[in-house]
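re: ur question from yesterday

yeah so i grabbed the chain u mentioned. its 531 aa long if i counted rite. heres the sequnce exactly as i have it in my notes:
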Amino acid sequence: MKKRVTAQKFGPGFVRDLDDSGYPLPEGIIVEKDVPIEMRDGIRLAANVYRPNKPGKFPVIMSFTVYAKDLSGWGKGYRIPSHRISEATAFEAVDPGFWVPYDYVVILVDSRGFGRSPGGAWGAYDYYDAIEWAGTQEWSNGNVGLCGVSFLGIIQWDAASLRPPHLKAIIPWEADSGQPTRKFGGIPETGFLKKLEKFFLAPSYPAWDRSFPEKRPPGERVLEPPGERVLEDITVPALICATWSDQELHTRGTLWAYKTISSEHKWLYTHGRHKWAEFYSAEALDIQKKFFDCFLKRADSRIMYTPRVRLEVRERLDKYAVRYEDDWPIPRTKYKKLYLDAETGTLNFNEIIRERKVTYDSAEGKAVFDIAFDQDAELTGHMKLKLWVSPEETDDMDLFITLKKLDAEGNEVCFDSWHVPSKYPVALGWLRLSWRKLDGEKSTPWQPILKFEAEEKVEAGEIVPCQIEIYPSSTLFRTDERLRLVVSGKYELESTRFMFEEHSVNKGEHSIHTGGKYDSYLLIPVVEPRI
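ran it thru and got these structure tokens back, copy pasting raw so excuse formatting
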């Protein structure tokens, strides 16, 4: 039987169906609802505080949310067994039922203008002020850590870059960092934010006075555009989680942050399975606890002897291997070119001599290229696709890239994802041709970064080169299994969450040119076993 959250509790019109909301909170936890935290401009944000019911000073784990701090329960669609989280676990936040018995204080704050907090414009300085408040309470040991998934991770980058004195560690879990290029290679996506605003963002139903300043505090950096956040300013220890199966949202930006932040102590936890279930899994909680025990309690140094990268290499939907590496990208990676052959529809380690082209209808067609591996091959890291292309009937084109794995019999091997469960491919890439100019300073041979200075249209039928970033992944191919490259004019996944068709520039046929001077190729990251 489903529970229903009452409209009176979360504001007019805010009703959501929920399945069982988890186990009851253990005894010995003090629960304080709607605790006011005053910001520098005088506004008070509403927080829930969960702390041990005993004397002492304890480290703090904090999250800000836009999904209503009091809305507990997840539902079966999130693949989290009800016995794994307590009824106090808010969407994408840490579970007080797990952490408080280990002598942590958990604080969940409704962001300004959401849930029980009044206000309008908000930003990272709210997080800064809340961290400093938490670090100076009588029950606090002065050490504050941040933890949460998605939005609850994204804002951690902003807060940490401001360096609040009481902030000692962060765990951004699958959290886009505002990578230095426009999402989806310049192709607009119009579906996700609409669904987010309609079904998830909590309306403001303040616990006290609704009045608030119309302007942000002086000098505040805002969250948008995300490229303004300064990742290099982050120096606190960080445990960062990235998944291979969330490429539309967080994969690229999370890995970019791992490479970019200045923290001396940082770890990367990768996986390729279901998003939220992994956050609350026994393995994830174990490394989270080791991390916070070290940097918030100073009580356990085992994390310091853990290699920096937990690498999960997928083989099938239900089969993967885990090992540890010292850095990302993996230093011993060998980048190899697979040349496209339009005549045979194949990918080849040898250059193609004869010039050929393959043409497809941009509305429904696609171009497909395959290679069967003659020995086991692990592809882990960044990929790049160089194409020579021509839009035959217009001055621009949208390119959607899908990499797939096929078994030895030719059947597609799919992986997991939160929005297309059990049907996710190896990796994805996007490009609108008019935004193909690269940033020479930021690009690497395996990761092209777009410049986004000005559009560069082409003439109908004009053949031009472009480089397309394929988002990072990790997949093992056995002997005789195939890698398939699909190039098309539309998003190939059957997802109800993401929409790219609304502002498409496609019209008529597209051509891909290969061979001779048209050296179209896929650059793959082959990781060889340690000797």
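noticed a couple things. Confidence is low (pLDDT under 50) at residues 1-19, 214-228. also The domain at 333-527 is CATH 2.60.120.260 (Jelly Rolls).
anyway ttyl
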